[in-house]
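Sequence in, structure out.
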Amino acid sequence: MTQADNNQTERTSADLCGKLLIAMPSMGDPRFEKSVIFMCAHSDEGSMGLIINKPSADVTFPNLLEQLEIPHIRRTTEPNVHFGGPVEMGRGFVLHSPEYTPDDGMLRVDDDFSMSATKDVVRDIAEGTGPVRAILALGYSGWGGGQLDGEILQNGWLTCDATPELVFETAPEQQWTAALQSLGVDPIMLSASAGHA
């Protein structure tokens, strides 16, 4: 490993938490194709993030509430339940705005984002007392120590800043393109050059 590689690894280790990972077209894993992942935690021990642009085709919010035995009043618009990643797909996670502060089970990622992993946050969303903005996800994306840094160095992922507008206000089907454009990258050029040296 060269000094430049060491510097790159140190840089990615230091500042991935609270960033977005953008899957490159060369990503070999179909589960992550065109994924945008919000990074909740990143350290030498490992990394954890939630895919934010893949609403589940199988699970709706009312289904989820029924499974959790949480009373529910139907609304005209229901939050999506997303595929958060291939690890522990039976567990739920909520990425949300920071004004919502439950008593326990919350990780404050930065000034704009927090993550909760308790049934209480889902109940509060159902009752209309939850966070102002939230993404519900089943499962998460995880990497062992150094694994994600290696994938970034091999050009599997690009990284960009996470903004509340990009995470909470951009439609899921537009987030991959919007994230690339936030870096000044044209997705059409990226797709056209995929696989070429």
